[in-house]
C-alpha cells in the first residue's frame, strides 16, 4: 500500500485492516512499528497518535536540532508526554534514541520511564532491549523476552521442524 510492489510482509495490527507494507517503506508511508512486546505494526490510518498539548509559551522548535517543528499532532513531530514542553522531529529523536540506548530520558524534564514507553509506543526503536526494565508492560498480554534472547522451544500451532519443538541449533 506504499510502494505498490509485491512481497510486503507487514500487515497493520488494527483488527479488520488489511494494509500491508514493506518495513523499509514504513517511514515513507508514515506507518509505525513497535519494537517491543508483540512487535506490532500500524498503517498510516491506524497508527498510535499522541495527544498534543499546546501551551501559549511553548515555542515551535525541536529540542534536539533547534529547527522549527510543527505545532500540531503529526507523524513527524513528537512531544514529551510528561512535561509537554519538549517537541522533537521524529528523525531527530530516533537518532538520539539509537545512540542513547537504555538511558534515554526526556531532554527537558529528565523523566525516563513514561518518556521511554511513549517513544516505544510511537515507533521509536532503541539500540538496547528494554524488556528487563519494564517486565510489567506487556501490551499484547503475551509473555515477552528481551530482544537479545532466543526462544528455547517452538510456539507455532503446528511445528514443522523435523527435530521437534525442543530442537535448537547453536546459531539459530
From TrEMBL:
GO molecular function: ligase activity; zinc ion binding
Alphabetized UniProt keyword annotations: Ligase, Metal-binding, Zinc, Zinc-finger
Source organism superkingdom: Eukaryota
Any one annotated GO CC term: nucleus
PROSITE patterns: EPHD (PS51805)
PANTHER family, sorted: PHD FINGER PROTEIN, PHD FINGER PROTEIN 7
Protein name in the entry: G2E3 ligase
Organism expressing this protein natively: Dasyornis broadbenti
Amino acid at each position: 500500500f506504499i510502494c505498490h510492489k509485491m512481497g510486503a510482509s507487514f500487515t497493520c495490527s488494527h483488527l479488520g485492516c488489511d494494509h500491508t507494507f514493506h518495513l523499509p517503506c514504513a517511514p515513507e508511508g508514515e506507518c509505525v512499528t513497535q519494537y517491543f512486546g508483540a512487535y506490532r505494526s500500524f498503517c498510516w490510518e491506524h497508527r498510535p497518535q499522541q495527544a498534543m498539548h499546546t501551551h501559549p509559551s511553548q515555542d515551535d522548535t525541536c529540542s534536539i536540532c533547534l529547527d522549527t517543528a510543527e505545532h500540531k499532532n503529526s507523524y513527524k513531530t513528537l512531544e514529551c508526554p510528561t512535561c509537554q514542553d519538549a517537541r522533537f522531529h521524529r528523525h531527530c529523536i530516533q537518532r538520539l534514541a539509537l545512540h542513547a540506548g537504555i538511558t534515554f530520558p526526556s531532554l527537558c524534564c529528565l523523566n525516563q520511564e513514561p518518556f521511554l514507553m511513549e517513544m516505544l509506543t510511537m515507533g521509536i526503536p532503541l539500540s538496547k532491549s528494554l524488556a528487563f526494565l519494564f517486565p510489567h508492560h506487556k501490551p499484547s498480554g503475551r509473555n515477552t523476552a528481551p530482544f537479545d534472547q532466543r526462544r528455547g522451544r517452538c510456539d507455532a500451532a503446528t511445528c514443522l521442524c523435523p527435530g521437534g519443538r525442543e530442537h535448537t541449533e547453536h546459531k539459530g
